[in-house]
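Progress report, Aim 2. The chain analyzed during this reporting quarter is listed below.
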Amino acid sequence: MSCGDPHETDCSEVLDHLYEFLDHEMPAGDCAKFEVHIDECSPCLEKYGLEQAVKKLVKRCCGHDDVPADLRSKVMGRIELIRSGQSVPEQDVVAEARAAEAAARTAKGAESGPSTSGTPGTKSTRSASGGPARPGPLGATTQE
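Predicted structure tokens for the chain:
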């Protein structure tokens, strides 16, 4: 993407490294160039604002959950493969993440002992067929 105006730093470079900038993972000199660019380029400022808002939303909604160590190591391994230019094996990352999350919940449940009333502070939900409803993608409820 380019706004069509000449800038010292090209729009595509800013957008390619936007998350490094948002996460404060780039050298100070590069940060300064990006700040100048974002201050003078409306499309990049808009994209920056959008990505910053998404990042804050994710942190607010998911920032308190502990990430299972094995999931973290798998994600970091994939990032390293991508950065090194190697091919990434096709796997169902979502299924792996859900399995890791379920294992973490099972481990937590085993630590606190059995419970007959379900998770405190949550309602028990039943599907139309009478079985328990499960949370699906993005919090939607799937029926069993």
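The two ends are 44 Å apart (CA to CA). Helices lie at 11-16, 18-22, 28-40, 42-62, 69-84, 93-112. These observations will guide the mutagenesis work planned for the next reporting period.
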